[in-house]
Amino acid sequence: MKNHKIQADVAALGTVIDALDPLEADKRLWVLQTAASRFSLTMNPTVSGGGKPPREADTPAGPGTDKIAGGADASPQSFIRAKNPTTDVQRIACLAYYLTKHRNTTRFKTKQLTDLNT
User: Fold this and answer.
1) Which candidate, 108, 88, 87, places its Cα nearest to that of 97?
2) Residues spanned by the domain of 79
3) Domain total for the chain?
4) What is the predicted pLDDT for the residue at 43?
């Protein structure tokens, strides 16, 4: 049952990414804020405030960071183990980050996240 839930999360993330991809940054932010409001969710102030995520140089090194998880040679398993996500959504976000930063894949589909997860 848990694997089915992860696949549903990955499918939802893929749908969101596909829908937001053609939009400009300010429109993406509006869509995300509106959707979060609709479901009574609060967004990270950095994201909802329109700010940029911290640069890698601004992020302190420590447990669970890429420097600990390994460089480009880190396997998906070791990366996930180092990040230690506690929810399915966090796990999918970690896998998406892994694809982007460790495999230089800026665009991917739900199937790639699902395959990486298994």
Assistant:
1) 108
2) 2-53+62-117
3) 1
4) 67
